[in-house]
């Protein structure tokens, strides 16, 4: 029940409250004027009657005296009373949502120091945020709903990530990395454009539901895009071809003892082949990135050059016991 309540509260919009209040006032004024004209009373008395009727006070000192007046009274009651009731209900819900956000440790802005910002609540966000937070990184998720489902180690900012004001409040320029993880493809493109403008120097990663959107995000300046469609499809295909391939990939990414790292090629490795570098690296040297393309040394043994990036799989404990080559 608390989760359902929190989800409902996230639907409350300030614009909805304003719209309901304006509609209520319009119906109130029209009803008051109509009552004053048909019952031959002053506009002041008409407003007094309309307000007492809309607020369900109904003193009874001013009442309609003919059929037209009764029809007006009915219309005021079936329009103004529900509209005012809905407006105040939304207002109360909004205040409750603010209080609930404090109880759930939702932030108005990002934490001090470095952090990783995740925009959206894709199905994979809960797992992603939990695993990244488990490594000791500070993680902030910016989303409009379902924030209460995240683990306590993950900090949150409640808001629609497609709105620039929400993105600015998250201060993306201070983050070490940015991840876009929304279900709607159009939202992913919109967020990517705004984040690239607000934080042009921060590495930007995006989760895409299809290879088509992944390509579009890359064209917008997203450094790394992960297509869920391609990742799942290729993994399952390899598992069918080689039954333990999927288990191997899963073990590499889910093991808490292992960590992936990437870094620029050091002077000691420049000029060596990938196979030679593998014998010098403390860990499993998976491949080398050349001009955005990954080479694993299967079909050819590439030579490491200045500007290349090395991808390494290491034991987490070795991060503090070995110097990087």
Automatic annotation (TrEMBL):
The keyword Ribosomal protein does not apply. SUPFAM superfamilies: NAD(P)-binding Rossmann-fold domains (SSF51735), TrkA C-terminal domain-like (SSF116726), Voltage-gated potassium channels (SSF81324). It comes from the Bacteria. The chain crosses the membrane at residues 20-51, 71-97. One of its GO terms (cellular component) is plasma membrane. The keyword Transmembrane applies. Residues 243-325 form the RCK C-terminal domain. GO terms for molecular function: potassium channel activity. It is found in: Cell membrane. This is pH-gated potassium channel KcsA. It comes from Ferrimicrobium acidiphilum DSM 19497.
């Amino acid at each position: 029940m608390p989760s359902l309540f929190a989800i409902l509260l996230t639907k409350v919009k300030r614009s909805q409250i304003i719209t309901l209040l304006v509609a209520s006032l319009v119906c109130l004024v029209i009803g008051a004027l109509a009552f004053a004209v048909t019952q031959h009373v002053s506009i002041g008395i008409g407003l007094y009657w309309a307000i007492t009727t809309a607020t369900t006070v109904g003193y009874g000192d001013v009442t309609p005296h003919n059929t037209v007046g009764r029809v007006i009274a009915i219309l005021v009651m079936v329009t103004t009373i529900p509209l005012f009731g809905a407006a105040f209900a939304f207002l109360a819900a909004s205040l409750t949502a603010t209080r609930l956000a404090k109880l759930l440790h939702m932030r108005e802005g990002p934490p001090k120091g470095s952090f990783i910002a995740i925009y959206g609540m894709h199905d994979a966000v809960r797992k992603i945020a939990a695993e990244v937070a488990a490594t000791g990184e500070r993680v902030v998720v910016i989303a409009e709903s379902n924030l209460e489902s995240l683990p306590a180690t993950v900090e949150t900012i409640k808001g629609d990530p497609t709105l620039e004001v929400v993105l600015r409040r998250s201060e993306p320029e201070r983050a070490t990395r940015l991840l876009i993880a929304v279900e709607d493809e159009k939202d992913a493109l919109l967020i990517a454009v705004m984040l690239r403008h607000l934080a042009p120097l921060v590495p930007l990663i995006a989760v895409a539901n299809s290879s088509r959107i992944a390509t579009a995000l890359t064209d917008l300046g997203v450094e790394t895009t992960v297509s869920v469609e391609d990742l799942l499809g290729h993994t399952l295909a390899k598992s069918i071809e080689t039954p333990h391939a999927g288990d191997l990939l899963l073990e590499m990414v889910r093991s808490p003892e292992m960590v992936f790292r990437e870094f620029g090629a050091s002077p000691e490795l420049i000029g060596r082949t990938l196979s030679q570098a593998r014998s010098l690296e403390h860990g499993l040297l998976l491949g080398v990135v050349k001009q955005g393309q990954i080479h694993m040394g299967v079909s050819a043994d590439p030579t490491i050059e200045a500007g290349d990036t090395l991808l390494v799989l290491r034991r987490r404990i070795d991060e503090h016991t070995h110097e990087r080559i």
